[in-house]
Design a protein that fits this description.
17 helices, alpha/beta, 11 strands, two-stranded parallel ribbon
Length: 508
């Protein structure tokens, strides 16, 4: 399945070549005996040969004839009796698409499926050939052809059709709720926790809990180093993806287990059971004598990460674990990393804004293949031998039935950076709200602005039908809204410097 989608992404590049139209469609297959439920398979076709109906009900249900023992390049490849009202399946190669479809048409075929062991490319031809042919021709992957035989046997019927793609998939609603919810909860939690730590001076006697409460103040030097590391890592992934992807997966498993522990530990500490500590020992970490309940929580969090790591490529359910671990990781980062001033927030967001736009829109002009480095790395290079995906995204399967979901993009994605970067500004706004006792107006306004920016991203995605750098829309929405609220409340100077709240503001 992963290999097929990788070849399909390469094939999609041919859609933009001159004079060759490329569309995804489906072939609905069912047994002639009518004893099994039908199934859709991905096909790649060129509508210049013949158009496919958009509705399955209007598509002709015809017998699929397995002729994959031949390539249909000469009359000797045609069986006795021809292809009367059938859709033959033949192997790709040895002659042009036109020669194959012409032989099929003059021998009574109502369509042609060309089975390919290689990447799927749109079946091209010239104008005179298009005018001569009036039956649809499409490419089907060899893997799908084998699955048809295994699932339905030798006597099958099929209907070729190409339903319209929905403007937006319903899974965008799920991604929106997860992203906005994570930013709101993380920003609120980070702000409240930081204020309690500074002003209430809670006395704690649990070493592990003290460790959980540690924060890192971000300085301009740290921001510059971070951006340079991001650029370097992205370029390295682009050139050495197969070697580094497993390193990223391992780091994600470790960081996600820590994040999950951090998110669940406040709830576990409320339980009245398991307060006893393990006996004295000299083992690393255990010499601190953690509580039994916290030790069990750590084992649980590590186990969840290991389960995801083992079954990460299970499309049916592994995405649920990845999203849960990803949200926990984002919440942990939002409460651990602290931007002490709006000046620091502005610097971080603007630099990453330029970074995002450059690697999505500018790098296609710099690469030999015309590919965006960001999109290629996020989706996984088409020529990757591992077919692994980077886990640093929220992913939700498409809920609408469409060729694009079936063929190439079964998931919609949102990167962690599109949550963490604006989320750090939301956290700063909440801390400032509590400092000036403003009834959380900054926090609410910035959270709403983030939601609006995300909606604008989805609209741009629907209109342009290509991957969008979400920070292109999120950064202006959140920064300008926060700036406008501070200006309206005549608190811009204090909001800009974090006066009275930041520590060591000379570094900012």
């Amino acid at each position: 399945m992963a290999a097929r989608r990788a070849w399909l992404r390469v094939g999609l590049l041919f859609c933009f070549l001159p004079q060759v139209y490329c569309e995804y469609g489906m072939v609905h297959v069912l047994s002639e005996k009518g004893s099994s439920k039908g199934k859709d398979y991905c096909i790649l076709f060129n509508s210049q040969w013949a158009h496919l109906p958009h509705d399955l009900g209007k598509a002709s249900l015809l017998q699929l004839q397995d002729q994959t023992a031949s390539v249909l390049c000469s009359p000797s490849d045609v069986p006795d009796g021809g292809f009367n009202n059938q859709i033959p399946m033949v192997m790709r190669g040895n002659c042009t698409f036109y020669e194959k479809v012409r032989l099929a048409q003059i021998n009574g075929a109502r369509g042609l499926l060309i089975v390919s062991r290689e990447r799927l490319v749109p079946p091209g031809g010239n104008r005179s050939q298009y005018e001569e042919i009036d039956i649809p021709v499409a490419l089907l992957s060899y893997t799908d052809m084998l699955d048809i035989g295994k699932s339905f046997g030798s006597s099958v019927k099929g209907a070729m059709y190409a339903p319209n793609e929905p403007v937006l998939d319903y899974n965008m609603v799920i991604i929106f709720v997860m992203a906005v919810g994570t930013v709101a909860i993380g920003g609120y939690w980070a702000g409240s926790r930081d204020v309690k730590k500074r002003y209430m001076k809670h006395k704690r006697d649990d070493g592990a809990e003290k460790h959980d409460d540690e924060t890192v103040d971000v300085t301009p030097i740290m921001i510059c180093v971070f951006v340079v590391m991001c650029c370097s890592m992205l370029v390295l992934l682009y050139f050495f993806y197969d070697h580094l992807v497993y390193v990223i997966i391992g780091i994600f498993c470790l960081a996600a287990s820590i994040g999950l522990y951090s998110c669940l530990s406040p709830f576990v500490r409320r339980f009245p059971l398991g307060k006893c500590r393990i006996p004295d020992n000299n083992l690393p970490y255990f010499h601190k004598r953690p509580q039994v309940r916290m030790l069990l929580l750590a084992i649980f969090c590590i186990s969840v990460s290991i389960v995801w790591g083992i079954f990460r490529n299970e499309d049916q359910w592994a995405w649920v674990l990845q999203d849960a671990l990803g949200i926990a990781f984002c919440l942990y980062m939002l409460k651990t990393i602290r931007l002490p001033t709006f000046k620091g927030c502005t610097l971080l967001l603007l630099v990453l804004f330029v970074y995002d736009v450059f690697f999505v829109f500018i790098t296609p002009f710099l690469t030999k293949t015309g590919e965006s480095i960001m999109v290629e790395v996020a989706a996984g290079p088409s020529d990757s031998a591992t077919h692994e995906k980077l886990p640093m995204v929220l992913k939700v399967p498409r809920l609408n039935s469409s060729p694009l979901a079936l063929c190439d993009r079964p998931f919609s994605l949102l990167g962690f950076g599109d949550i963490l970067v604006p989320g750090l500004l939301v956290a700063y706004c909440h801390r400032f709200d509590i400092q000036v006792q403003s009834s959380r107006v900054y926090f609410v306004a910035c959270t709403i602005a983030y939601g609006i920016g995300l909606l604008v991203t989805f609209v741009a995605l629907a209109l342009m039908q290509m991957g969008q750098p979400a920070l292109l829309y999120l950064v202006p929405c959140t920064l300008l809204t926060s700036f406008a609220v501070a200006l309206w409340r005549k608190e811009l100077a204090m909001f800009w410097t974090g006066s009275g709240f930041a520590v060591n503001t000379s570094l900012i």
